[in-house]
Specification:
heterodimer; A: alpha/beta; two-stranded antiparallel sheet; 10 strands; elongated; B: alpha/beta; 7-stranded mixed beta sheet; two-stranded antiparallel ribbon; 9 strands; disordered N terminus; disordered C terminus
């Protein structure tokens, strides 16, 4: 294995890392200032750092874990339906990320009561490299500030230069969807988190508040004493606290490992529902410091979670008090440890986890460095198996993706066949929507079989997405977004025709609210996300569903027009747009089409002034 | 090829699962209450609440009903339980009925009334309930949990809120009970903790009729020890005569060996259900596969001695404390030759945790004879046993593959749809039910029949996989599958019915609904019922594309028979009854039609149903005109 420096592996300049560390520690000294800004004299870097907070209510705003969905705040999730949706979610499933409320509110407060935002905007106009940093709970603020920047400035391209975020001993701030979103947007690389082997702080949020209410405030108070550390009098509390956090971390890590390893025993979920498992998960790149100068760099979030637990385990029972003490002391060792490590440059890049050596001794020559570093992190055989499971999981996602990529040709062929069907049907002046709805000929039957075949492929993709078993970037891959849009435009009308042909609206309700398959909902969101379109604005493939509903309304309420006037005008406006944008083809205007017949039944007065009158008559 | 693939990256998870269970503190808490129940609540149970979880702990010291010979027999659950466990056997088509140990069932029933009141008081107050107990208290806990699960299911409440944890508790049910619990998917609600050598959970495997008094003394000894929990257990069994210990030990070991080697589960023997957590000094493993559980029980007992097999029943406090603290310390594999494959290494670690390696244990007072050959054999068998326990460990991948299979099978269904549509348009106006029934042999129908078989094969395999836990646990609630199965049922079941009556199965077995309906349809009925969609009243404007009652045609066939019989029936009472049934059917049919819940094939001019209606109308008018003795039926009203 080639040896690399920390800078080469992470892509962060080492001199920048060193600087962030001292700035992050410096910020604690002026807790009255909401943030510190420091400009580098030698480079274009601007550093923003924050002081830590040590009150339990800042860490846990509520039981059990003080977490909220990001739409509870406007910082990371804009409100209002017509706006572009936030990126901090999974696109198709539309699961919003969950973040720590206390830290998020603190950032909100800093932004609203200080000049942080204007300083940041100034740095943008000056084309500076912006770096957010923080130690301890301030690290959490730095992470959220960075995401705020990415969402507010980078995504809308108000800034070209991506920010960087370096934290030291930061607690976890958000759940796995947060990590999923960062990876999908390719933002994960901008985050670098340092964790000392025994530092308890990055692990605290793995335990529910109820399990440590007695000790937490006291421990945070001790941690606030900075360098002078009166821990000697509190060994018992520290031990108890360490044990509580580790027990919860163990439950979480072994639960996650069972899932990664594909355990199917239903008792896993039954028991999980009896306890409180933390929602927090790591994101970004983690650098574990062994404590003797070595560094281990990991990017796989599943593996990082396992490392967070296993690296803090005891080697023997009588170590408990020593380790408990170190779990607090370690929190202040970052500067010295970093200094030592950067001099030594004994850095291990932990990739290819699935091939990790399991036993702690007798490594092959090329693995010696990795093996020793893992030994220095206390990684037992069982721990290494869990790391492997993380690696396998990632590999499996890539295999799944490859399998789906291979189906692209089948999808293309199916779409081509349906495209032919569409052209053929247009010859009979009805359009393929109505031809399919009537389903009289063998061609219609064949089209139906093809539709079902394609459904199978797409449902499989959706199923994989639902289980988060495709690589994070899948939903924003251009080739798939385009293919999905093409699929949606050709095939969804057939699904709608089928739906209304079988009168499923009477069993289940209108197609749009009750019957629309996820394969169309998801893929519509893909396009809206990729092109930064307002939520719900790419609904061209559902055109027929609205036509059917409006027609049904007019049949059941004969003669009415005014009640649905707005809906009709809206549909006409959108149709005009879609026709001009070639998102819907002209066959909707054929003489025999449901749409034409319905539109002709509207009051003449409306027809004569309608914006699509020209289109209808041409 | 797929299986090979998944084997490569498999992991052995029995150990990490046990680690998870032990870390959660649920075992520790449960044991704490069991121990209190043992000392302070003999013959009863205690109820405690911690946060939003309630604990119900049954004492291990219960009145022994073993003296009564009949108590040792297995009895049919449905005959003795007063319907309390009805969901377990209601839809069963097993040859063998569910049987349980009579004494254990009696003990549960004797506590049932007070328990029912206690549990009712807890509901609403707590989110979830842990039911626990040691020894014979564990069997009562299991039955209580089973009853509670049945009860919750009948109220459509979620069943994931019940967890049963037993400690060293004997098996009490047969293979049919095991299968029924699998089928209900309740295996995940049972966690049986068994210490390595404890003979109690294995006791009922043995033919112990001849050793009644010995067993009784052993139970008394245990009860005496349980009453004083702080007694030092090791060496305590020297209070019992050696002859007693040896007899019981070897008796159980012998019978357990036979059972462990049997290929097929025997119907008349006890069968485990739920998960078993085997606790040893070195760690714990959690296994769910019933055959593996029995084998491990045998292997672990085989490496023990008569004394420790008795003392281990009293050591749950130590074992539980030990495994729940294990998370703190890094645990390495401290032997040579760790395999490199993840799976093999996982097996090696699990064997180490369960102390079934061929290496002699460092210190264990329990081994009088250290037979290294035996240990080697045990190690090899244990390895096989874990492999057996490993079913397909990629449920999501399996589900994804199943989705591909579904997409391949769906065109066959589409063809049947097409067939139905063609029949609807055909000149003979029979609808697809009658066309299929009448023209079974012709080419087109033969093809439809082939499709029908393919679809049936596919859906049966889905159910089999689900019941063997090869699919994700929420599979039967996933929209895609619920909808696909429902659509399949509505479209194809009428053809199954047609086939049933065409091939004369009616004469051989009786009517379709009670004697011919495939289990898959009942399961799909349940999936459809259980989906979490509020049932809305929708007025249909046109006939449904598929008749909403998939058994509609079977009901028509039954009604046809009644109609034939009523003409020839001479017994007045029977005739009245038939007339009434026919009348009810007509009302049912009319209601479906009024609500437009039938598809238009039902109303086709020459369909069985339309013809039946004609005949029925005719009969009614004949009756009114010519048979005064039928006059009391006018308009279907029975005038006494």
């Amino acid at each position: 294995m080639d040896s690399h420096t920390l800078g080469e592996i992470t892509g962060f300049r080492e001199e920048l890392i060193k600087k962030t560390c001292s700035i992050a520690m410096e910020a604690h000294k002026s807790p009255e200032k909401p943030y510190l800004v420091e400009k580098s004299r030698t480079s274009s870097d601007v550093f923003f750092s924050f002081p830590g907070s040590w009150s339990v209510t800042h860490w846990f705003t509520r039981k059990p874990f003080g977490a909220i969905k990001i739409d509870q705040s406007e910082l990371l999730s804009p409100k209002g339906n017509d706006k572009v949706a936030t990126s901090i979610k999974s696109i198709g499933r539309d699961d919003l990320a969950t973040v720590n409320e206390g830290f998020l509110r603190r950032l909100e407060m800093i932004l609203s009561s200080s000049s942080l935002q204007s300083e940041v905007e100034k740095a943008i106009t000056e084309k500076k490299q912006i770096v957010f940093t923080g130690h301890s709970s301030a690290g959490a603020i730095a992470i959220l500030a960075t995401v705020w920047f990415l969402e507010q400035y980078l995504k809308p391209e108000k800034s070209r230069l991506s920010p960087l975020c370096v934290t030291f001993g930061s607690p976890l701030v958000a759940d796995f969807i947060f990590n999923h979103a960062l990876r999908r947007e390719n933002w994960s690389q901008y985050f670098l988190h340092f964790v000392m082997r025994y530092d308890i702080v990055p692990r605290i949020l793995l335990a529910p508040l109820s399990s440590m209410e007695g000790e937490l405030q006291q421990i945070l108070y001790l941690l606030n004493q900075k360098e002078m550390f009166p821990i000697q009098g509190y060994i018992a509390e520290a031990s108890k606290f360490y044990e509580t956090v580790m027990r919860n971390a163990s439950a979480l890590a072994s639960h996650a490992a069972c899932q990664l390893m594909g355990n199917t025993n239903p008792i896993l979920e039954t028991v999980a529902s009896f306890i409180e498992l933390s929602p927090y998960r790591p994101s970004g790149t983690f650098v574990f410091c062994t404590g003797n100068g070595k560094l281990v760099v990991v990017r796989n979030a599943d593996a990082i979670l396992q490392l967070l637990f296993y690296s803090s385990q005891l080697c023997s029972e009588n170590e408990l008090e020593t380790v408990a003490e170190r779990s607090l002391n370690n929190h202040f060792d970052y500067q010295s440890a970093l200094q030592e490590s950067l001099n030594m440059q004994n850095v291990v890049n932990l990739d290819h986890l699935e091939g990790l050596q399991l036993s702690s001794n007798g490594a092959a020559a090329e693995n010696i460095a990795t093996n020793m570093a893992l030994n220095d992190l206390g990684m037992s055989t069982r721990a290494r198996l869990c790391l492997r499971a993380g690696g396998e999981h990632e590999k499996q996602k890539l295999i799944n993706q490859k399998r789906m990529d291979m189906k692209k040709a089948d999808i293309e062929a199916g779409l081509a066949m349906l495209e032919d069907y569409k052209i053929k049907s247009a010859v009979c002046q009805v359009g393929y929507y109505d031809a399919f709805k009537i389903s009289k000929d063998e061609d219609d039957f064949k089209a139906n079989v093809k539709r079902l075949e394609l459904t199978g492929i797409w449902d499989e993709i959706i199923e994989l997405l639902n289980r988060y078993e495709l690589p994070e970037g899948f939903e924003s891959r251009n080739d798939w977004v385009e293919l999905a849009t093409k699929y949606r435009r050709i095939v969804e009308p057939l699904d709608i025709a089928n739906y209304y042909r079988h009168a499923k609206n009477e069993d289940t309700g209108p197609y749009m609210y009750k019957g629309r398959p996820r394969r169309y909902k998801y893929t519509q969101k893909w396009r809206e996300h990729a092109l930064r379109m307002p939520v719900g604005s790419s609904g061209e493939s559902c055109f027929w569903a609205e036509v059917e509903e409006l027609q049904l309304y007019r049949t059941t309420n004969p003669g009415t027009f005014e009640d649905i006037r707005e809906r009709i005008l809206n549909l006409e406006r959108k149709l005009e747009e879609w026709i001009h944008g070639k998102q819907i083809s002209n066959d909707v205007f054929l003489e025999g089409s449901t749409f034409t017949k319905w539109w002709r039944s509207l009051p003449l007065q409306h027809q004569s002034v309608s914006r699509i009158q020209g289109l209808m008559n041409s | 090829m797929e299986t090979q693939n998944s084997c490569q990256n498999n992991f052995e998870t029995s150990e990490i699962l046990a680690t998870f269970l032990a870390t959660t503190q649920l075992l520790e808490e449960a044991w704490r209450f069991c121990s209190i129940a043992n000392t302070t609540f003999p013959g009863a149970y205690l109820v405690e609440q911690i946060g939003s979880v309630a604990y119900v702990a049954f004492s291990g010291r219960q009145m022994e009903s073993g003296s009564d010979q009949s108590c040792r027999n297995l009895v049919s659950l449905d005959a003795e339980d007063g319907g309390r466990f009805a969901p377990l056997y209601r839809h069963s088509e097993e040859k063998e009925s569910i049987k349980v140990h009579n004494g254990i069932l009696k003990l549960f029933l004797s506590m049932y009334q007070s328990l029912q009141i206690q549990i009712a008081a807890l509901m609403g107050k707590v989110k979830s309930i842990v039911i626990t107990g040691q020894s014979i208290g564990g069997t009562t806990a299991s039955l209580s949990a089973l009853w509670l699960l049945c009860h919750l299911q009948s109220m459509s409440s979620p069943t994931s809120t019940v967890l049963c944890i037993t400690f060293g508790s004997p098996l009490f049910g047969n293979e049919a009970l095991h299968r029924s619990i699998l089928r209900q998917r309740w295996g995940g609600n049972f966690c049986h903790v068994v210490s390595k050598h404890d003979i109690m959970p294995r006791l009922l495997f043995a033919e112990i009729v001849n050793h009644d008094s010995k067993i009784q003394s052993l139970l008394n000894f245990w009860h005496w020890c349980m009453a004083s929990p702080h007694v030092i257990v090791t060496g305590l069994s020297s209070l019992l005569p050696d002859d007693l210990k040896d007899t019981i030990f070897h008796c159980v070991l012998k019978d357990l060996e036979l059972l462990a080697q049997a290929e097929e589960p025997s119907e008349s023997f006890f069968r485990p259900f739920g998960s078993y957590v085997f606790c040893c000094q070195e760690g714990a493993i959690c296994v769910e596969n019933a055959a593996s559980v029995i084998k491990l029980m045998y292997l672990m007992l085989a490496t023990g001695s008569p004394s420790c097999s008795i003392e281990d029943h009293l050591k749950y406090g130590d074992y539980v404390a030990k495994v729940s603290k294990q998370f703190l310390k890094a645990r390495n594999f401290h032997e040579e030759g760790l395999p490199d494959s993840s799976y093999e290494a996982g097996v090696a670690l699990a064997l180490q945790s369960s102390e079934l390696t061929d290496k002699e244990p460092v210190q264990d007072l329990c081994f009088p004879i250290q037979n290294s050959n035996l240990r080697k054999e045990v190690a090899i068998m244990a390895k096989n046993c874990l492999q057996m326990a490993q079913n397909d460990h990629k449920p999501n991948l399996t589900a994804a593959n199943l989705a591909i299979k579904l997409s391949k099978i769906v065109p066959f269904r589409a063809e049947i749809e097409w067939y139905k549509a063609c029949c609807d348009e055909a000149d003979d106006q029979m609808g697809y039910y009658d066309s299929f029934k009448l023209k079974g042999g012709s080419r087109r129908e033969a093809r439809v029949n082939l499709n029908r078989h393919k679809l049936a094969g596919f859906w049966n395999s889905v159910i089999l996989m689900l019941e063997n836990n090869m699919l994700p646990h929420d599979f039967d609630r996933r929209e895609k599958w619920v909808n696909a199965s429902q659509f399949y049922k509505l479209l194809v079941e009428p053809l199954d019915i047609a086939d049933y009556y065409r091939t004369g199965m009616r004469r051989e077995h009786g009517h379709y609904i009670d004697h011919g309906r495939e289990r898959r349809y009942e399961i799909f009925d349940k999936w459809w019922r259980d989906r979490r969609v509020p049932e809305e009243e929708n007025k249909r404007s046109k006939f449904a594309s598929l008749t909403q009652d998939s058994c509609f045609w079977a009901r028509v066939e039954e009604a046809r028979e009644w109609l034939d019989n009523v003409r020839s029936e001479s017994d007045v009472t029977k005739r009245h009854l038939l007339w009434h049934k026919i009348d009810m059917f007509e009302k049912y049919g009319r209601k479906l039609i009024k609500n437009k819940e039938v598809s238009k094939d039902v109303l086709a001019k020459n369909s069985s149903f339309s013809r039946w209606m004609e005949e029925w109308k005719e009969l009614k008018s004949q009756v009114q005109q010519f048979h005064p003795w039928f006059s009391d039926f006018v308009d279907g009203e029975v005038v006494p």
